[in-house]
Amino acid sequence: MKRKILGAVLLAVLLIQLIRPDRTAEPVDPLNDLIAVTKPSADVETILRTACYDCHSGQPRYPWYTNVAPLSWWLQHHINEGREHFDLSSWGKASVKKRDHKLEEAVEMVEGGEMPLPSYTWTHADARLSEAQRTTLVAYFSSLSSGTNADVPDRGSQEPGK
Ligand code: HEC
User: Fold this and answer.
1) How far does the centroid of ligand 1 lie from the alpha carbon of residue 17, in Å?
2) Strand partners, 94
3) How far is the CA of 11 from the centre of ligand 1 (A)?
4) Smallest CA separation from ligand 1 atom 25, residue
5) Is the pTM of this model over 0.85?
6) Tens digit of each residue's pLDDT (9 = 90 or more) over 108-144
7) Distance between CA 125 and CA 6 in Å, rounded?
8) What angle do CA 123, 74, 53 make, to 5 degrees?
9) Which of 56, 61, 110, 131 to mutate to test the pocket of ligand 1 (most atoms within 8 A of CB)?
10) Where are the domains positioned within the chain?
11) In the 8-state DSSP scheme, what is residue 129?
12) Chain centroid to CA 7
């Protein structure tokens, strides 16, 4: 009996691997990418790439285990949701007003320790931000809010999430 149940479970685990999450993303326009547009310091760039870009950009890294269902579905859901709310790959397309709003939220989330998502930092030790890194990131986001980022052209009215 036990062996039958085990067999059924193994078969189910194998079968769900056939259902692949849809990873097609909009093509990334490098001109609109936050890092390309704002040219942050190397420190900030590293923090953004290791702690935010996997979920908030069109360039997520997919380590091997992200191919294993059902984890793959759950992770893709996070990436889709992350991009929908805050897409750093389309920063340049966002209006200054939208940017300001997102920057405010980013400051709050980083200060409050809500981002990067804790479920992500369990497996990505390099994305666990130290106090100093949080301060650096918050200072960077704050420095981008309107008035100070006048040199970043406003190239449209699209939401960064869209
Ligand atoms: C593991 C994926 C993941 C990582 C890594 C991550 N986020 Fe998020 N983020 C999400 C998801 C999912 C949401 C939307 C749901 C929510 O608010 O929990 C979100 C929401 C946000 C929002 C809110 C946007 C809105 O309109 O509500 C901001 C701002 C944000 N993240 C900033 C960041 C920053 C800055 C980093 C890096 C320090 C980061 N996130 C890292 C997944 C992630």
Assistant:
1) 27
2) 158
3) 35
4) 85
5) no
6) 999 999 999 998 999 899 999 999 999 999 999 999 9
7) 34
8) 55
9) 56
10) 2-143
11) P
12) 38
